[in-house]
Amino acid sequence: MPKPIKSITNPKLRLEILTPAEVKRIHDATLHIIENVGVRFPSQQALEIWEAHGASVDRDKMIVKARPALIEEALKACPPVYSLAARDPAQDLPLDGNHVYVGTDGCGVEVLDIQNGQRRTSCLRDVVDIARIADATEEVAFHWVPVSAQDQPPETRGLHEIKAIWENSTKHVQTESIYNAREARAAIEMAIAIAGSKEALRKRPLLSLMQCSAPPLGHDAGSLEAALLAAEHGVPTGFMTMSACLTTGPASVAGTLAVGNAEVLAATALLQLAFPGAPVFYAAAQTASDLRSGAYTGGGPEDFLFGAATNVLSNFYNIPLSMGSFATGAKEPNWQAGLENSLSTFMASVVMSDMLLGVGFLHGSRIWSYAQMMMDCEIFSIIHKMMRGIVVDDESLALDTIAAVGPGGNFLSQKHTLKHMRDIFVPQFMDRRPYNEWEGRKDDARDWALAKARKILETHRPEPLDPKLSAEMERIIETLEK
Amino acid sequence: MSADLFLKMAQSIIDGDSDVSAALARQAIEAGIDPLEAITQGFVVGVNTVGDAFAKGDAFLPELVMAGEAMKAAVATLEPEMQKRGTQRMMLGKVVLATVEGDIHEIGKSLVGTMLSASGFQVYDMGVDVPTARIIAKAKEVDADIVGLSALLTTTMVKQKEVIEELDRLGLRRKIKVIVGGAPVTRDWVQKIEADGYSEDAIGAVAIAKQLVGAV
Fold first, then answer.
1. pLDDT on residue A2
2. C-alpha–C-alpha distance, residues A355 and A438, integer Å
3. pTM here?
4. Residue ranges of chain A whose CB lies within 8 Å of a chain B CB
5. How far is B110 from chain A (nearest CA, A)?
6. Which of A62, A109, A362 should be substituted to probe chain B, the one whose Cβ sees the most B Cβ atoms within 10 Å?
7. What pLDDT score was predicted for residue B202?
8. Cα separations (Å) of A60 from A32, A50, A217, A364, B157?
9. What domains are defined for chain A?
10. What is the pLDDT of residue B1?
């Protein structure tokens, strides 16, 4: 039974957040930063690649400065369109600029237990459960590793996590939790096992990797080397900037956009210099740090602006974007969570960001909530509906029907109504009951969302993975644990 | 004369201007003012003013950080004169700070360092990716009261535990308190590894450190 994936496509809504001239200014500022300030690449392998292509490399400080032409030429090799492949080919995700997909967010450290609601440290079982629920949900198109499997050994944790997801879902797996060459090599080996061969994986990448930058203007050696390895194997790779106004970026939104852009572009150019044509994506989750504590916020008007502006940049470079949306800073599913997740996701969607990360978290991507996951899916569905805009044609203007009803009647019994009523959105988690009915129960969206997640977990049986493949993955992991 | 200078000193801290605070410190030395007096009657007054404004919600974190930097510049300028006179500023305690081995995330740790040093702690910031053995060696060398350990990854967080176990093994656990921080650090983790304290932000870290050295 093929499971459809809900994605935003052929949108009618538009937003111009940056003019072409403003994009050009940010681009020029970015190249100025890379050429004059430089970006830190603390990896011998990366520095050698830069040197071989004529960049100026300070070996002591491990800072690379590159001419604009070097960066611009390298970026031309980025493939503008490719697909993230899934175990079920019907669930492949074309990153073609005309689809917006949602993933599960990552990588949290605590979970609100689905049965007793208690907050506790996350473990592998949670990765399994979340993957199963996401597998059943039409809104979730692909997986990130949602929470850290803290009951697994640190040196192979990232591998246990992706194995668990592959075993419990047929959808694409993107991991943000593998950030060294050793684990990346094993992860790619696992992906090759499932794909059937190296060539098959290159053709249909069942795995993609997301690496965080080390802001401001730096990268981590392990991340760079894992990304280079992925690029070599045609495994899609993205660098994410989490540049934050006040702390890792200037207080101004434009300045922080430029700093983050420099981080992403420099690393992306490195991958293209090493492996021209390797599938890459742009990833971002910029924010403004809290003015009082300096802490990560997970929402606010600056975040929403970043959410819309970044896809304009990634479009300028013709690279797919993975954009941070949802991920409220709220401590429980409440007013703040609804507000932040709706606005961030709307702003990132209206500009057609290719991937949105993602559903399910509270407290700035730290605490997983199944209720929040389900409600985030509904937020996406509402935006999905809005993005179709308003159809204006003879059928939708319905002049004959309006004439048939005339002044004073109603439209409930019209054939036109019967034909089109299902175009109207039916919410699962909005309270539209009579007041008295609510008063008798005092339940709300959170209760219904949690009940839905529990029901899916009880009833959904994902398409099993061939046990031979599980055994092979287990073998690969064990090799690293010896 | 010196009353006027003290006012200017306080103002330089409030303005967060390191150039001015250092220049005023030099001026004080030339005028033969006791460096300790310059600190307590001049610069510290500014630090307290910014601290109070922050507590009331009238000032923000960048103002605290800049005040801290200006204070640091002033004290550094006065340091040689204090040594000459054989006097010493009373510190609340010595803190060795590090981001643990395998982890390169710096900003939160550095912010904690700035806040601690502005609040009167002697801070030894060892930077990032620091192996356990080096942290312990430094703590012993400077006779630290507190070791502060930062980690942003669940995979490196285990090093916080390693440092605590090592201090325990060396019989230093009663003498040296350990505070931990970083996005994945939760209360459960802190209890599990038996750290002495943790905070989710830099302001909270100062409060914890003060508690641990009995300064509040």
1. 53
2. 37
3. 0.93
4. 42, 107, 109-110, 120-121, 148, 150, 154-155, 157, 179, 214-215, 220, 246-248, 251, 289-296, 364, 366
5. 11
6. A109
7. 87
8. 22, 15, 16, 36, 28
9. 75-388+469-478 (3.20.20.480), 394-423 (no CATH)
10. 62
